[in-house]
Amino acid sequence: MGVIKMKQWVCSKCGYVYTGESAPAQCPVCHVPSSAFKEKALGGEKRVLTSITKLNIQYAHRFLGYIGEAQYLHGHTGTLTLEVEGEVNTSNGFVVACNSIKNHAWEYLVNFDHAIILQKEDPILPELLKVYEAQGIKGGSPWNTSTGRAFDTDLAKAYPECRLVVVKKVATVENLIEVFYTLLKDTLNIKKLTFTSGDNAASFSV
Ligand SMILES: [Zn+2]
Ligand SMILES: [Zn+2]
User: Rubredoxin-like domain: from which residue to which, for each copy (predicted)?
Assistant: First the structure.
């Protein structure tokens, strides 16, 4: 059996590297068209590094059925540290241009910021929606402008219009890391995620 050598294509804007016969229709990270991709020269100097990006997420949650103060609705500032591995792009010097990682991750993660994270079966959920409905803000508001991309996975569903995320499992740092990883893994070459919130932290290495 022979070895199949795949071509590699580098996004000239953000440094995203795509492996395949031809460049993708558009960059999954920064959305420029395929014409912005350049074929990577084989051989030469290769440096694989990890690029580290931090994102702050302010959110409210509670642990449903938990015996302790965390059963009450309360807030946190969490910090997600995102470690992405890749080859250094010789033209721009980045693994993935740092703002691109942040911007891309934020498209999804902004849904958790200034948001309430509740479990599906939490009886606060229908009550909260009733209040938002009565105030006319359930379906959005002209001042709710920094909304993210809606998502609906096995673990979580985002309602960007009213800054709500409904989760399947209790929103501990451990479970939230799993939610974040599922949302970001397809477009970022994640090596490690660390989420710190209050006195708690969890990390996950791929
Ligand atoms: Zn790109
Ligand atoms: Zn908490």
Answer: 6-40
Its sign, for the CA torsion 55, 57, 63, 67, is positive
Q: What is the ipTM of this complex?
A: 0.54
Ligand 1 center from residue 142 Cα (angstroms): 30
Domain 45-205 has CATH 2.120.10.30: no
Which ranges in the chain belong to alpha helices (H)? 98-109, 124-134, 173-184
Question: Rounded to the nearest whole angstrom, what is the distance from the C-alpha of residue 76 to the centroid of ligand 1?
Answer: 32
Distance from C-alpha of 16 to C-alpha of 86, rounded to nearest angstrom = 9
Q: Which SS3 state, helix, strand or coil, does residue 168 take? A: coil
Q: Where do the structural domains in the chain lie, given as residue ranges?
A: 1-44, 45-205
Q: Which tens digits make up the pLDDT trace of 134-189? A: 999 999 999 898 899 999 999 999 999 999 999 999 999 999 999 999 999 988 88
